[in-house]
Design goal:
6 helices, seven-stranded mixed sheet
Length: 187
């Protein structure tokens, strides 16, 4: 299924964030860029390296008006226990969404029903609630926080400058391309 430009469905889940629990809904994610970052499970192996890498870049995400929402099939209480047991996860400041019934994982089509865990999906959602980019990795393949940030920034640039596109490996400040017939066959 292709998710590009699809609006996310309404949802309501519990979350653990920085020592407290709270509710997160679709209304909470509208009006800013959102990163839905699915991972298989708390207290696992690749997952803490990814969550820590995102935390290391969290201020940069916030500077470009984006919120990170990590999501697993664990409860908010398991997220809390993990944060208390792991020095790395204890540093995480972004919301850790609880999806024990698999509603979000099914909505984004990343749930491995047999395992009861989410594949490693990253969904970049614009302020209107529409998916602008996504990748899905198998369980054992970790992701790059730097590449997620770069892709977010490219999506933001294209949204703001609809007549320009970002070439491979583009980063803010690099040259972009204005598509035209004059460029056909010259790139």
């Amino acid at each position: 299924m292709n998710f590009l430009n699809q609006e996310i469905d309404d949802f309501k889940v519990q979350a653990y964030q920085d020592g407290d629990t709270k509710e997160v809904t679709k209304a909470d994610v509208l009006g800013k860029w959102s990163i839905f970052f699915f991972y298989p499970a708390d207290f696992s192996f690749v997952c803490p390296t990814e969550l820590e890498a995102l935390q290391d870049k969290y201020e940069e995400f916030k500077q470009v008006d984006a919120e990170i929402y990590s999501v697993s099939e664990d409860t908010e209480f398991v997220h809390k226990a993990w944060a208390e047991a792991s020095e790395e996860i204890g540093k995480v400041k972004y919301p850790m969404l609880a999806d024990p019934a698999g509603k979000l994982a099914r909505m984004f089509d990343v749930l491995d029903e047999e395992a009861g865990q989410a594949y490693r999906g990253v969904f970049i959602v614009d302020p209107d609630g529409k998916i602008q980019s996504y990748t899905i990795n198998n369980m054992g393949i970790g992701r790059s926080a730097e590449e997620i940030l770069r892709t977010l920034q490219a999506a933001q640039f294209v949204r703001e400058h609809g007549d320009r596109v970002c070439p491979a490996n583009w980063k803010p400040g690099d040259d972009t391309i204005k598509p035209s017939l004059d460029l056909v066959g010259k790139l």
